[in-house]
TrEMBL record:
Protein name: POU domain, class 2, transcription factor 1
Pfam families membership: Pou
Gene name of this polypeptide: PO2F1
Gene3D superfamilies: lambda repressor-like DNA-binding domains (1.10.260.40)
Domain POU-specific: 21-95
Length: 122
């Protein structure tokens, strides 16, 4: 039925739409986040480093907590709509030496990834 000029789907219509369109925006977003996590791990970066570089380079205001929530696939759709372009831009910049220099300034892009801290046991 129509409400205020907008078609409102019934539950069965929603299920049919979901089944016929299994690949959603959120699937695409989480593929981007998965790639972000892979690149972050490859370069030995912390979630804090990613958030700081995005804030510094693109004028955003995100925290490492937001990066963590996105990596756990718990980010609301509204927030993912805002962050996906930033994450894609960060990944594009990280794909080239020039982009990495832009992101990290004086960081040597040819340096090996940082060694992970040793896990402590009690």
């Amino acid at each position: 039925f129509m409400k205020d000029g907008i078609k409102v789907l019934s539950t069965s219509e929603c299920q049919e739409t979901t089944i016929s369109q299994p690949y959603s925006y959120l699937d695409d977003f989480y593929n981007v986040v998965s790639e972000l996590r892979r690149v972050r791990a490859h370069y030995g970066l912390r979630q804090f480093d990613v958030a700081t570089s995005i804030n510094r380079c693109y004028g955003a205001n995100i925290t490492m907590t937001i990066i963590s929530i996105a990596e756990r696939a718990q980010l609301p759709l509204e927030d993912s709509l805002k962050l996906k372009p930033l994450f894609e831009r960060w990944l594009k910049d990280m794909s080239t030496a020039e982009g990495r220099k832009l992101i990290f300034g004086s960081v040597d892009t040819d340096a090996r990834p940082r060694a992970r801290a040793q896990q402590r046991t009690l």
